[in-house]
């Protein structure tokens, strides 16, 4: 089978011909239709889980995927042959990922039945970005009509946050870098946008919201900038970062809850997202659909935070 893998940590991704995996007890064999690209994928290349989990090389990349169940192993009860599924295919050992024509996934992984009203290519864009957005908002705990400053809004996670927050009646102020981004965010439900390349986010918020915003979600900033952004949150508000740069003591001093955030992939979160999509309330923000051969370039773009919406690899 064709797969995109690296021969060692820090290697350059390349299309390889590898053996088709075999189903084992408690697992399902999936014929992959598409895989979603996430920043975590290149972090795996860099060895973020080295020493924490076993790895196989060549290491087939990819966490997010969608496809069709081709075979089920002994003891599998949740899925049957022919089911359309999606989710996070990552499991131990690392290196049996979704950037492949076939993958074997434990039944107990963060996978579930795919939404029925969209294609599997679109479904592959959802798992990590969608669950991250859903869980960030749950943890932030904002109420109807409260204000959320969303920094790094135009990527995959941000595009889901804007929609899910809008569904809850939360007033979203999204940071963008150009007019295209501003227009896209407004269409998804943002009430305001701030072009950080033209004006200071800090000055804009202080001028328009002198008492501060109720919540902050920052998907991109380094430590010093996140600290500046948290100064725009009301005392007693909430602030979350996915970049793991929160200063817990600084937040505590201003009675701000939150801090560093990590997604927990669950079938329940996937089902919530699928229901929102199938009801028409949630649109999947696919930015680009690429081939396996284009993955090295797309990984590099992700490293440089140049993604617009979500990049998906069409495989089958």
UniProtKB/TrEMBL annotation:
It holds the Pfam family ADH_N. Gene3D superfamilies: Medium-chain alcohol dehydrogenases, catalytic domain, NAD(P)-binding Rossmann-like Domain. It comes from the Bacteria. InterPro entries: ADH-like_C, ADH-like_N, ER, GroES-like_sf, NAD(P)-bd_dom_sf, YIM1/Zinc_Alcohol_DH_Fams. Residues 11-313 form the Enoyl reductase (ER) domain. GO terms for molecular function: oxidoreductase activity. PANTHER family: ALCOHOL DEHYDROGENASE RELATED, RETICULON-4-INTERACTING PROTEIN 1, MITOCHONDRIAL. This is NADPH:quinone reductase-like Zn-dependent oxidoreductase. It comes from Chitinophaga ginsengisoli.
